[in-house]
Design brief:
binds iron/sulfur cluster; 5% strand; two-stranded antiparallel ribbon; mainly alpha; 201 residues; two-stranded antiparallel sheet; single chain
Amino acid sequence: MIPSIEKVRSEFKKDTYVQERLAQLYAAMDSTYKEAADFYKFKCTGCKDNCCFTRFYHHTFIEYCYLLDGFDTLENEKKMEIKKRADEVCTQLNKADQKGLPVWQMCPLNFDSLCCLYSYRPMICRLHGVPHELTIPGQEVQCHPGCDYFAEQRKEKKYFRFDRTPIYAEMADLEKNFRQKTGIVDKIKMTVPEMIYEYDF
Ligand code: SF4
């Protein structure tokens, strides 16, 4: 059973070590991503297939807590609006899942094509778009080509090596460190709409 998020958050708020390392990791991701995007001269503004329509799953409590810390900085009226949107998105996703239909729903944090919690957004939102590599022990290196919009814009075949492996390893290590201190053993797999939907603020 997943522990109450409020209980987890109170532990997270006390854990300045994990908070600081997570902030540093996010900064490192943003700077590596920028380096890659600049190399390709890739800009994702104006993309009609906005990746905030994608159903990304997130697996760490530390990112969940970080996002909700960001959510708490918003005005109450905005929170209510986002909560309403999240409820609607979750309802639509559930309906589509029950019928086995594909579904595209915009993330409730996206307003006018911009993330209203940009500095609190989870890892996958920071890394999506440009090509990257991932090494899983015992397997061949996985190469991912980037999003469809990237492929459309790409003019040259030059390659910037963007290895996500150390980023994932650091995130896993941080989550493990937090879990060891708090005794959490349960796994999570949640979308941002679900995180907001579940949050009783
Ligand atoms: S959290 Fe922000 S960046 Fe991530 S999907 Fe939602 S709106 Fe987009």
